[in-house]
Amino acid sequence: MKSHRLMLLAASALAAACTVSAEASAQTFPEVTQQMRNSSHRGHPAFGGLNEYRILARNWSVNTFYIVWTGAAPERRPHWVIRRAIGDGDGQTGLVWADSRDCPAVAEVLTDMEGLPGARWDVPGLGDSSDQIGLVLDGVAYTVWNRFARTGPDDASVDAELTGNVNSPAARWWTNGAAKLAGCWKPEEPR
Fold this sequence. Notes:
alpha+beta; 6-stranded antiparallel β-sheet; two-stranded antiparallel sheet; 4 helices; about 35% strand; globular
C-alpha cells in the first residue's frame, strides 16, 4: 500500500512540474482535439481517432479517421483518410493528410486498430481486481476513440474511448502505425 501512495504522489508531482512548461501546449491541445473529433472531410464525419500528448516533450498530435465512399452502386468503393494536426508548446502547429488510395499503409493501420483489445473493468479490492497500479511516469498519453466499436456476444454498437500511456495497447499500435505512415503525409487535403 505504501508503494501505491508513492506512485500516486510521484504522478501528481510530475503533472504539477509539467504544467508550467507545457502551458501553451495544454491551451491548444484540448481545443484542437474537440474540433477534430467533430470535424468532417468532404462531408464525411470522423469515425475514430488517436490523440497523442507528450507533456515532457511539449508536443502533441490529433489524428482523425474518415471513410469516404466513391462511385455509384454496385461499383461503390471505400477509401480511408487520416487528418493529422500537430503542435508544440511554442504554438507551432501544422496539418497533414494521408489517403489510402496512394498509401496502402493507411488501410493497414486502421485494420490493426480493429485488433485493439478492450479493457477489463477493475474495482480495486473486489472480484478479479489487482491492488497494484501499473503506473509508468513517461509523460505521454494516447487516447484512441471509435464511434462504431462493438462489444458483447451480440456485437452491440458502442462509442469507445481508451486512454493509456507508453505500455498500453493503443501506444504500441500507434507507435507501429506512425512508423508505417511516415512517408504518407501530404499537406494537401485529399479529393
